[in-house]
Automatic annotation (TrEMBL):
It comes from Aspergillus fumigatiaffinis. Residues 12-281 form the Protein kinase domain. This is non-specific serine/threonine protein kinase. Residues 477-489 have a biased composition (Basic and acidic residues). Residues 323-341 have a biased composition (Low complexity). PROSITE patterns: PROTEIN_KINASE_ATP (PS00107), PROTEIN_KINASE_DOM (PS50011), PROTEIN_KINASE_ST (PS00108). GO terms for molecular function: ATP binding; DNA-binding transcription factor activity; protein serine/threonine kinase activity. Transmembrane segments: none annotated.
Length: 687
């Protein structure tokens, strides 16, 4: 099957391949009606284990969540299952490689906050991902370029019933599912995966971003099983303190917490987010969505602009040289091969100057000229390479050449130190470390003007009117003569252009530079404000979603209370209708007052029994009817402390009711265990 001119869903055209997932290939697609670009995932219908339809259903179950792509269409075309989904940006693995395989602490913390929220949402929808790795987290595009998205749910699985929330049973001897590098230790041991395993895998991903590599990468083995066993052994024998050495203690806390969770425990997502947010604030970072790849992108763009500018200037200089050579006589042609090169006439004068013409001074001045030419070459080559990194020549060599040559020139004058016009070259210029701050100052886009052909002029020497016998005065006169000769060789157009360049250079003032800087600051401030608004809206959306879930739980709790009250009221009315019939003894019903559930069992014949407590003949355990169960829950210390959700207890007791001869009843031990389980699992929901 070829992808050329192939359409799916009658409106999506398939383009080039852009990636691959766990069970299919991903192509760039286009909506032929609107022109919008989308992603199309294809899977052969002859695949041994088709997964795309299942993945599409998972996407549908998760639809509406932040960072969950939207499925536009799913169906079968020719011999392929096709799923049309939102187009996203690069994966975190791609960006990790783009940033030389190391993320700063700020970037890791910015990502951690979003990653924990994404996994929490997936778990709230009763799914576990089971393949947490950097390749499955993609950044958005356009307005959502700072948002982390989760993809590839081909291995996702439900860990509980969506309605009853009954957890799947504990199992062992399971095959490894997911990526071995980031798999949890329990997954390596063959234990059924649950929520704790997704969170542990996320911890390995964050350490991978901080460290650059994990200790169990690159292990060799004869078979895949042996390799997995070696990875498991390395994970189990590497202490968290060693794994997190050199990084904040919060990463060790996170990993120890996730490893301590039991099979059916619910992770405390709020707590995990909080420890990283506190670290973010303690490091004085700004939540400005400035990631490492944002800084590197600006660096590379600036380097490309500088290279293009340098190439353009070189071509213009070559063109001017060729034009001057064609128009001027051969005998008077000025040789100006490169900007900043020392003219041949000046070198001849320096070599044949009779004043102070000693072997030492000749050698010194010759070395000075060579250093000046080397410095000009360093400046013309640009400070940065095409990848935005510092090149081999960016070691201050050009600045050292210039300074040393300048000192040698000063030896020729007995006056004060000579100040040349190399003011625009800043040998201390360095790009600020992107990991230390979110601000970035791009490198200069063109070589300093001080290394141009005419940078050393007569105005640069303060003693331009020295004695005729002094070397400095002679050099000043020679410099005037060289400039006039070069001016004679210029065409009218070149002279006009040169005058315009000088006028433009003279007009550049600190005020103009400050206005450009102010414009750039306004633009950056505007971008930050927009990003803050987006962040605020996302936080409000998350808050509203949490409030909605809380209201749902309260509604379920009130519905349960209503059912219990209805059952209690009906039982009370029926007992009054029987004219307070006496209750049987021994195994029959017993009455009690809610103030003392265990001791206030009243004897037979007391009027108006309120609740029913029987003894199970098989186990000897108390059986509580609805009213007695209600009073036991409300009288429990955990409920009085506000740690028990009655709705959650009711859900846990579903399916456990027995008949006590008159209606449903629950074992006392089951009720107590449900209360304790609700208190253990519901703290984060009740706070």
């Amino acid at each position: 099957m070829t992808t050329m001119d192939l359409r799916v869903g009658n409106k999506y055209r398939i383009g080039r391949k852009i990636g691959s997932g766990s069970f299919g290939d991903i192509y760039l697609g286009t909506n032929i009606i609107s022109g919008e670009e989308i992603a199309i995932k294809l899977e052969s219908v002859k695949a041994k284990h088709p997964q795309l339809e299942y993945e599409a259903r998972v996407y549908k179950s998760l639809a509406g969540g932040v960072g969950i792509p939207f499925v536009r269409w799913f169906g079968t075309e020719c011999d392929y299952n096709a799923m049309v989904i939102d187009l996203l940006g690069p994966s975190l693995e791609d960006l990790f490689n783009f940033c030389n395989r190391k993320f700063s602490l700020k970037t890791v913390l910015l990502l951690a906050d979003q990653l924990i929220s994404r996994i929490e949402y997936i778990h709230a929808k009763s799914f576990i991902h089971r393949d947490i790795k950097p390749d499955n987290f993609l950044m958005g595009i356009g307005k959502r370029g700072n948002q982390v998205n989760v993809i590839d749910f081909g291995l996702a699985k439900k860990y509980r019933d969506p309605k009853t929330h009954f957890h799947i049973p504990y199992r062992e001897n399971k095959n490894l599912t997911g990526t071995a590098r980031y798999a949890s230790i329990n997954t390596h041991l063959g234990v059924e995966q649950s929520r704790r395993d997704d969170m542990e895998s996320l911890g390995y991903v964050m350490l991978y971003f901080c460290r650059g590599t994990l200790p169990w990468q690159g292990l060799k083995a004869a078979t895949k099983k042996q390799k997995y066993d070696r990875i498991m052994e390395k994970k189990m024998t590497t202490p968290t303190e060693v794994l997190c050495r050199g990084f904040p203690n919060e990463f060790s806390i996170y990993l120890n917490y996730t490893r301590s969770l039991r099979f059916d425990d619910k992770p405390d997502y709020s707590y995990l987010r909080k420890i990283f947010r506190d670290l973010f604030v303690r490091e004085s970072y700004q939540y400005d969505y400035v990631f490492d790849w944002t800084v590197y992108k600006y660096q590379k763009n600036a380097a490309m602009i500088a290279d293009a500018t340098n190439n353009k200037k070189d071509k213009e200089a070559d063109g001017r040289q060729n034009a001057a050579g064609a128009q001027a006589p051969m005998a008077t042609t000025a040789t100006a091969a490169k900007p900043g090169a020392i003219s041949s006439q000046r070198r001849k004068v320096l070599d044949h100057n009779t004043l102070n013409n000693t072997p030492d001074t000749n050698r010194a001045m010759g070395g000075s000229d060579r250093m000046l030419r080397s410095a000009s070459k360093v400046a013309a080559s640009g400070a940065y390479g095409p990848a935005g990194s510092r090149t081999k020549r960016d070691d201050g060599y050009g600045a050292q050449c210039f300074l040393h040559a300048n000192n040698l020139h000063q030896l020729r004058s007995p006056g004060p130190p000579v100040i040349t016009n190399y003011h625009s070259f800043d040998p201390s210029f360095r790009v600020q470390n992107p990991a230390a701050s979110s601000s970035f100052v791009p490198p200069p886009h063109s070589p300093p003007e001080s290394f141009s052909k005419h940078s050393v002029s007569s105005n640069d020497f303060p003693n331009s009117h020295a004695e005729p016998g002094s070397v400095e005065g002679g050099d000043d006169q020679l410099q005037h003569r060289s400039s006039s000769e070069e001016k004679d060789n210029l065409t009218p157009a070149q002279s006009k252009r040169k005058a315009q360049n000088r006028a433009a250079a003279a007009n550049i003032s600190p005020i103009g530079a400050s206005s450009q800087r102010a414009f750039r600051e306004r633009k950056e401030r505007h971008v930050r404000e927009l990003e803050e608004k987006v962040s605020t809206l996302e936080q409000e959306s998350t808050t509203l979603a949490a409030d909605n879930e809380r209201l749902k739980r309260e509604l379920a709790k009130y519905a349960t209370e209503n059912e219990v009250l209805r059952a209690t009221t009906g039982q009370l009315a029926s007992s009054q209708g029987r004219h307070l019939e006496s209750e049987p003894t021994v195994t029959g019903p017993m009455k009690y007052t809610p103030t003392d559930f265990y001791t206030n069992l009243v004897p037979k014949g007391e009027p108006a029994p309120t609740h029913r407590v029987t003894i199970c003949e098989k186990t000897g355990e108390k059986l509580l009817d609805a009213g007695a169960t209600w009073d036991l829950i409300q009288g429990h210390e955990l409920y009085k402390q506000g740690l028990v959700d009655i709705g959650d207890v009711s859900n846990r007791l579903k399916g456990m009711a027995q008949c006590n001869g008159q209606g449903p009843a629950f074992r006392e031990g089951q009720v107590l265990r449900a209360i304790e389980a609700s208190a253990a699992a519901g703290r984060d929901e009740l706070i």
